[in-house]
Write a structure and sequence with these properties.
single chain; alpha/beta; eight-stranded mixed β-sheet; 9 helices; 10 strands; about 35% helix
């Protein structure tokens, strides 16, 4: 099956670029679309994610949108962390706003090569699950969501770390793949503290009125599988499903650069494609 691929660039409310892609079949299904939200230190062109988008487009028939959050740190070359100033200034609320910008633009039919869409499914990986769950609870256009290895809470810092953060105005996070020390500005912590109620993921999951598929690898080395259990316990039982991928890691065997698919990756793509095909 042929998958068409179009690139786009939007501006968020602050004038920063949101760079993305639309992948779809030659005759995509009408009205709905799938949006993919990448995780922390992730980006739309990381490893297996272009393959995931192609597979979801082909298997569901819906257009699939990928985009880089404006503060993810990857610049115009789409592959390297050349915008560490934007990474430092990023916040959870900015990512939520970026996702809304993407949905708003798609709804008005301004993305290339595809008509307007008014119903959305969202897939979020790891930290991308934050925007996925909260937007699913807040935005009536979202009709189904899926999270892969998502976090279940945001306050992941010790009091000592917070004190250092406030004193220095930033903390550094090592990117093991690139060797870069990536700065997190104090604005991220302040955003969480100011908006703790909105950013309470388990509370947001409990308010979901749409189908929610929770997928987590039992061998996730970054986010413990117990966090999926917390999300599953919070979400309405009648409209949610929790699936554990036995032996699955944080990226389900996907690597950067992409070295081909894996059994675990195919499992989660199958589950996700089926969920969106049934519920969108």
């Amino acid at each position: 099956m042929t998958i068409d691929h179009e690139r786009f660039e939007l501006q968020n409310k602050d004038g920063d670029p949101i760079r993305g892609d639309v992948r779809m079949t030659e005759a995509p299904k009408a009205d709905a679309a799938i949006v993919i939200c990448h995780g922390f230190k992730g980006f739309k062109d990381w490893g297996s994610f272009p393959y995931i988008a192609e597979q979801l487009a082909g298997r569901t028939g819906f257009p699939v949108i990928q985009f880089n959050f404006s503060g993810n740190g990857v610049g115009a070359d789409l592959l390297n962390f050349t915008e560490l100033d934007k990474f430092e200034a990023n916040t959870f609320s900015k990512e939520l706003s970026d996702l809304r910008t993407v949905l708003d633009t798609f709804e008005t039919g301004q993305l290339p090569g595809v008509d307007a869409r008014r119903r959305f499914g969202i897939l979020g990986h790891s930290r991308g699950g934050i925007s996925t769950i909260i937007t699913g609870a807040e935005d009536e256009r979202v009709k189904a969501i899926v999270t892969w290895n998502a976090v279940s809470y945001l306050d992941r810092w010790s009091e000592e770390k917070k004190a250092d953060w406030r004193r220095e105005g930033r903390i550094g996070i090592l990117n093991a793949r690139t060797g870069q020390t990536m700065p997190l500005g104090i604005g991220l912590l302040e955003d969480y503290e100011k908006n703790a109620d909105r950013l309470n993921l388990q509370a947001a999951a409990s308010r979901l009125q749409i189908p929610y598929l929770i997928v987590h690898g039992s061998a996730d080395e970054s986010v413990p599988a117990s966090e999926a259990e917390l999300l599953a316990a919070a979400a309405p039982q009648e409209s949610s499903q929790h699936v554990v991928i036995d032996g699955g890691g944080h990226t389900f065997g996907g690597a950067h650069p992409f070295k081909g698919t894996t059994e675990h990756l195919e499992q989660v793509i199958d589950l996700t494609a089926d969920w969106f095909a049934r519920h969108l």
